[in-house]
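Forum: Protein Structure Q&A
Topic: Joint prediction for protein chains with partners

I've read a bunch of threads here and the consensus seems to be that you should model interacting components together rather than docking separate models afterwards. I'd like to see that in practice. Below is the full input, 1192 residues plus whatever partners are listed. Could one of the regulars post the assembled result?
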Amino acid sequence: MKKESFFDKAGTRSVLASLVAILVGMLAGSVIILIVGLTNSSLGIKGAWEGIRLVVAGLFATGRDAAGGLTFGFNSASFGNMLFRAVPLIMTGLSVALGNKAGLFNIGAPGQYLAGTAASLFVSLSVPTSVVPAWLVWLMALLAGMMAGACWGAIPGLLKAYLNINEVLACIMTNWIAANAVTWVFDVSNLKNVLEGTKSGYIYKTSTVLNDVVIDGVRSTVGANIPEGAQVVATRGGVATAKMGLDSIFSGSQVNGGILVAILIAIVIYIILSRTTLGYQLKACGANRYAARYAGIQDKRNIVLTMALAGALAAAGGALYYLSGNTEFFWNTYQSLPAEGFNGIPVALLAINNPLGVVFSAVFMSMLQICGQKLTELTAYNEYITNVIIAVIVYLSAFMLVIKMWIGKLRKGKAVDK
Amino acid sequence: MVHQHFKLIEVFTVLDNIILGAEDTKLGFVQRKAARKKVEELSKRYGLNVDLDAKVENITVGMQQRVEILKMLYRDNEILIFDEPTAVLTPQEIVELMQIMKGLAKEGKSILFISHKLNEIMEVSDRVSVLRKGKYIGTVNTQDTTAAELSRMMVGHDVQLVVDKAPAQPGETVLKVTDLHVASRLYKHDAVKGVSFEVRKGEIVCIAGIDGNGQSELVFGLSGLEKCSGGKIEINGVDITHAPIRKRSEAGISHIPEDRHKHGLVLDFTLEQNFVLQTFEQPRFQHMGFIKFGDIRKYSERLIEEYDVRSGQGSITMARSMSGGNQQKAIIAREIDRDLPLLLAVQPTRGLDVGAIENIHRQIVAQRDEGKAVLLVSLELDEVMNLSDRILVMYEGEIVGELDPKQTTVEELGLYMAGAKRQDRKKEASA
Amino acid sequence: MPFLIRQTLVYAVPLMLVALAGVFAERSGIINLALEGIMIFGAFMGVLFVRTVQEWGWFQPAYDAGNILGLQGFCFLAMLFAAAMGALFSLLLAFAAINLKADQTIGGTALNLLAPAVVLFFIRIIANQNTLNMYKGDAASWFMLKKSMFGYGRKEEMNFLGSTFVDKVYVATYICILVFIVMSIILYKTRFGMRLRSCGENPQASASLGINVVKMRYAGTVISGALAGMGGFVYVLTTANCSANGDVAGFGFLALAVMIFGNWKPLNICLAALLFGLFKCVAASYSTLDINGDGVYLLKNLNINTNIYRMLPYVITLIVLAFTSKSSRAPKAEGIPYDPGKR
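Posted by a regular:
Agreed with the consensus. Here's the joint model:
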């Protein structure tokens, strides 16, 4: 159970395999960019070269100079946003990684993420901050989100444990049910943004201050500016994750303390998995469900528990993302599932399901997204190329074992043990 | 070639299995009618009765073997290879197979029969070639040799097949099973139908029977892997019929499982992690839910030393990378060291070499002599006859006979196993 | 009533075709979780084909002359192209799963991520928006059968059969049914089908009988890709006005559920698909659904939130799975990489 030199070697090989996957993914993206550039007269080889440079180093892009050439340098906004966007990826990545460790492929993270988003938005925008302090509302919202995600994740867990329904299929169905259910509850809620005309289809930011007022006996909701003669009944909203000074380090970005919370949770999950009897049980169930059952471990209970925990983690991702107070939730979402949920899969696979590795792979994925954004901003290409790169990485992680063996052969010049 | 493990597609019909890979087609469509005619002719000519429309999963093992033979005949093969074909058959089915093989030889086919069972070799073969550890030892005419000579050639020295053990000294009852029913996982009926027996301190009771007569389900019922649909199980007077697996283990059952890869070990765990599979929640291995890695390492090192479990890297060896014999040793070490009153050993020597088998047999006898109750489930007749103090024969989910190994013969055992003979145990019990 | 049957078929037919695609892969021993991705890819390729050929103007004369046969031929070509591209795309899964013994679930997921990414990337470059439409006209005017083609006037109604199965119907739907029947027969009655099925149950046994398991599994996966690709195109042709947007709304996964519900058997799948098609149809058009033709919109009058209807197919799928999973029986060797050394 303790790490020895042998494991270190295996560990290095795993990291190398992940790096190979990343490299091949980037290469595939570059090749597509090149082909598109060469066949498209408006882009040409020059456009393609710009595209490739942005895919690799978009994080450092600062714009274009007077001559129209790309400029690079430290971009504090990009860095900060990378960290900000890594938060939901860390959480969904942890969710998928935990499932994988316990032998369950949690493709239900998008649905759990939505459940967490919805519950946390409801709590943060409904509990009057005039009565409960904002920080407490924030905490309540996060916990409510995690609870909702845990319940949502437990459904496929229960179906798997007691009715032996393939968890992948059950998760996919619960994803779509969640997408519809979330649309439905917000559709009938009073949280739709009606104060700002340009924001139709969105829910209020959690940082928005809402005042429930009574004017001439008629109850209504207004923003921070209270019209004359109105009597304030309650104040809601104004909830946002603390910045913890990060905004001054990465000026111009949306970063906040959420990233620290996410890293903390990753450490906790790491300790649970590697140091506790609970982690031991979950891993035993994952590695051999039959042997675990033979040994008296309650495999069914563990399946449900794993899925509930995974659900809570994914949900925390949604909660932390929207509780930042500077992102708005598009509620009419029944036709699409949040990409952050699915991207938990590549994050976990790239990290080889190691909770601490998840932090790094999530930051990497988030960097790719920034690159994609710069690509859209600065060239005729679009951000979907980063999704192509991510998909290629997932494809490669499906046969990570083979890649690891190749590396082993390269390093030792002979075959390694299975 | 007839493989030791049949190469059949369970959900296909017998006919489809026979013609698969050698189908006659017209425009790509399988010509089943013509094939059926040919197979029917073949089965008549060689006396191989099969139901062509039955699905393979629903027919008996003996019939499955006939399907394998028909597969070869359908392809008009001249040389037929039988690889350990009798391992799964009843003594009566074996006799039948021997006759079929002789008939085939008479019809002009050449037969290569691979076996380690001397009496079968003596009965059916014309010539014998002996291989030992991958080396060719020699060829003799069966008429000119004896079983003893063959066994010397096979093993290299005279072997003593009998296990040394003193007569049993049974004490009080440890395990008491009353009218136990266990449902079948595959079919709708019960796999174990009203089984009652006792196992006492200091004796080895063996459940004998042909594979698939409810032994596995009986074990699952006892160990808690499968729910009992009726009856009662008691350990030292405590009713554990509906107790969860962990409780049963605590009440006193240690269990060497039939399938060491499926149930016995977590192959992707290290040896030491496997050693604490049942006990990791005991206070000696954890504190407030945190694992005591140091104590587990010490424990593991002791087991490795005491039970001579050999592996590449000691405690941190992946179970997957260990040899089958050492994997089994590890399981036995874990189960015996838990020092519980009942040892449930299911085919503990399956797939192991002679040396490992001897070692395991010794350990089981030692457990008995220490006053443990041992319930052994085995398909190997030699093991049943040599190791047990009492034999219970299971046939179609019922115990059809209780035999004393000293007073019975393999032939008689075979008759019970095949369902040709049975004692009325219920009457005896009430009388 | 004719509307209900017609619309149910529109949803049910691609569903059963794609479910059959799943059957071919799984019966050969490969879990094809990528059905969704392959559908997306096939849909995009089919639409791109239609768009490009229209741009070249090859079938413009046929369109101007109202030549039904010519236009249906065009549509058929697009279906074939989508199938071919789906097959090509599925090779990625086959290679990973068969040659590299990869985890098939992850491999399939990768394809499900890859398809929308690639498709959207190119759609944005080609069309400068997130949807790829036909170059000219719409699906209905090019490929749909209409009563006017059979000499019926605007006010005339066809008889029940006509208005159910001819008017406002795509021939592509019937071609899919035909393909479904032919492929089902191939699976059960031919040497190829029999060998393919054996590889999903006991590949070691198949190999011992001289069957090339690798080839059979490739065949199963590629056929699966072709059927899913075709299904994807027909889906967007009949429900999305022949436009691709990198999404088929979980239809590929629904097809997997239908496959399991149908116990990996074509006839059962057919019935399951009809059931799901009905629910999909109700969800999509409950507000204008006049079931018994008395001018009363029963479902709309129930005043239930739209989202509940939209949720229904997925909820039903879960419930159905809950009831059938105990008795369902997957091919024994599915998902397990073929290892010739194992016995």
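Chain B has two domains: 14-125, 173-430.
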